[in-house]
């Protein structure tokens, strides 16, 4: 990494800067944690927290923003402003889970937010695997007991080792998108609690689902399962891409030992190939739909978030 790229990454919001210090520069904990604390009171973190409603929700709802119509959805794309996706971003920003704002948000969401699908309390999850998985990842981060939802996800694993949010509608084949969401949830749960025999076995089987497909290929034909899987996106929301898959194995490394499986090499090559001549990665794709505010400079422009994620994956792979 060049000094120019480092300086560019550090000339950013605290939500990103603390992760650069920790993951790329090996700064001592007192340095990156001091920067991380600022997420609560400065920049994107403080801005997003301030957009919450008085009852702790965002956009008045768990998943479907209050007042949104099906016509709005068709015209604008899926919205990303409700509680579920806002909490995802707060977590990605690295809001310290024990800070006053985090404790308040978790308590209020638990008290007031309920899923549209069946009126279940937010931290109890609903029925769809992707939604439940992200709730687990965020809940575990903020210290919520998500064990019952984890047990449900383990029980919903398909015969091929992955998961599919269309399972309830009859799907028997896993999808990359659902599988990465559930794997992230199981890993977060295991890192926080040690996991259960069932959750650990399910995670390993789900990881094998991805590895057997080189993180992006169809098992049946060897062809890329979807072109978008080769293009890192941000924010990831519910969508899969090879960088997200690689980042999962990077994090699993801390629990399992060296997870640099040779079957990851092709996906690593894909990530390297998308690096610009200036050492940065552009934001090539992002999901349509309402957002509270942008955290990148736009499609086609260099992305600090994609560059950070790519550099820390390559640093892990090349160590």
- Using the alpha-carbon principal axes, give the shape: globular
Strand content: under 5%
The total count of strands amounts to: 0
The chain-level mean pLDDT equals 97
The helix/strand series, from N terminus to C terminus, equals: HHHHHHHHHHHHHH
Fraction in helix: 40-55%
Query: Could you tell me how far the N terminus lies from the C terminus, measured between alpha carbons in angstroms?
Result: 13 Å
Rg (CA only): 19 Å
SS-based structural class?
mainly alpha
* Tally of DSSP helical segments: 14
Largest sheet: none
User: Unreliable stretches, pLDDT < 50, 5 or more residues?
Assistant: none
Which characteristics define this entry?
319 residues; mainly alpha; 14 helices
What's the SSE blueprint?
Elements: H1 3-10, H2 14-23, H3 29-37, H4 43-50, H5 70-76, H6 83-93, H7 100-112, H8 129-141, H9 147-155, H10 176-193, H11 197-212, H12 242-256, H13 265-273, H14 304-318
Helix pairs in contact: 2-3, 2-14, 4-6, 6-8, 8-9, 8-10, 10-11, 10-12, 12-14
TL;DR of this structure?
This protein has helices at 3-10, 14-23, 29-37, 43-50, 70-76, 83-93, 100-112, 129-141, 147-155, 176-193, 197-212, 242-256, 265-273, 304-318.
């Amino acid at each position: 990494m060049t000094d120019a790229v480092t300086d560019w990454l550090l000339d950013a919001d605290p939500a990103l800067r603390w992760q650069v210090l920790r993951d790329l520069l090996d700064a001592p904990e007192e340095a990156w944690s001091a920067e991380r604390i600022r997420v609560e009171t400065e920049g994107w973190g403080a801005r997003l927290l301030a957009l919450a409603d008085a009852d702790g929700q965002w956009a008045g709802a768990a998943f479907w923003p209050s007042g949104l119509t099906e016509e709005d959805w068709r015209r604008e794309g899926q919205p990303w402003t409700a509680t579920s996706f806002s909490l995802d971003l707060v977590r990605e920003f690295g809001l310290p889970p024990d800070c006053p704002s985090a404790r308040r948000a978790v308590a209020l969401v638990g008290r007031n937010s309920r899923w549209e699908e069946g009126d279940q309390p937010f931290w109890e999850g609903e029925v769809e695997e992707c939604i439940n998985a992200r709730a687990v990842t965020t809940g575990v981060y903020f210290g919520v007991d998500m064990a019952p939802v984890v047990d449900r996800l383990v029980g919903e694993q398909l015969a091929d080792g992955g998961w599919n949010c269309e399972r309830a509608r009859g799907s028997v084949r896993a999808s990359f998108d659902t599988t990465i969401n559930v794997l992230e949830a199981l890993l977060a749960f295991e890192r926080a609690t040690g996991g259960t025999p069932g959750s650990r076995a399910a995670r390993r089987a789900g990881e094998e689902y991805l590895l057997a497909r080189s993180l992006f290929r169809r098992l049946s034909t060897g062809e890329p399962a979807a072109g978008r899987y080769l293009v890192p996106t941000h924010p990831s929301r519910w969508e899969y891409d090879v960088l997200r898959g690689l980042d999962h194995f990077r994090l699993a490394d801390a629990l399992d030992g060296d997870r640099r499986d040779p079957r990851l090499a092709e996906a690593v090559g894909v990530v390297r190939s998308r690096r610009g001549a200036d050492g940065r990665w552009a934001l090539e794709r992002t999901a349509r739909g309402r957002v509270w505010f942008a955290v990148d400079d736009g499609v086609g422009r260099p992305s600090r978030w994609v560059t950070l994620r790519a550099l820390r994956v390559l640093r892990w792979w090349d160590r």
